[in-house]
Description:
This protein is mainly alpha-helical. The chain has helices at 8-14, 20-33, 37-43, 49-58, 74-77, 82-88, 114-124, 135-145, 157-160, 176-186, 192-198, and strands at residues 91-98, 101-108, 127-132. It has three domains: 8-58; 74-160, 2-Layer Sandwich (GMP Synthetase, Chain A, domain 3), CATH 3.30.300; 168-199, no CATH class.
Amino acid sequence: MDNKPTKLGEMLLQAGLIDQFQLESALSYHRNVGGRIGSALVKLGYISEETILTFLDKQSKFSRIDLHALEVPRAVLNMIPAPKLYKCMVFPVELREERGGKALVVAMTDPTNLFLIDDLQFMAGCRVIPVVAAEVDIFSALNRYFPGGKPVSVLSSSSREMDTSHYPILPPSEDRLDRLIALLQARGILTQQEVNKLK
Length: 199
């Protein structure tokens, strides 16, 4: 059996959820625009994010996690800088003790992205165990724990109920530029008139 890790696009192709043309189109979009291959497939209308998440959840290696009800310790949140979490659209969930040391459980949209996992492992200083979550849920969790891109000083039940309505929760198909513009607008850095000029 081939133990070589398979990338998300290839896994979806092998499962018959997308065809070769759709994969090539998404790869081209990904190369030109950036972002993640799963987001490219969703943005191009070839597959829904829910289908991707359900597919990954059924794979024995990956489990899906609900970020809404989690209470994450501050020490875990601080293992990777907030700007990196936003940039990679990942969310640290739990630090586990293992026989060989520690492992950080991280929610991400594409747990097959080995480059990202290696990067996170280097920053966290321990092994990273990827779990699957929707991009919009990761973004919402980041905004809950890092309002304004900064860590909250005390994580309590009140911080979970913090009003984050002024932070935009964007659908997963939005690309990074749209997300950045929305964040800058939400923080008052860009006016609506300036946003209109950018579009």
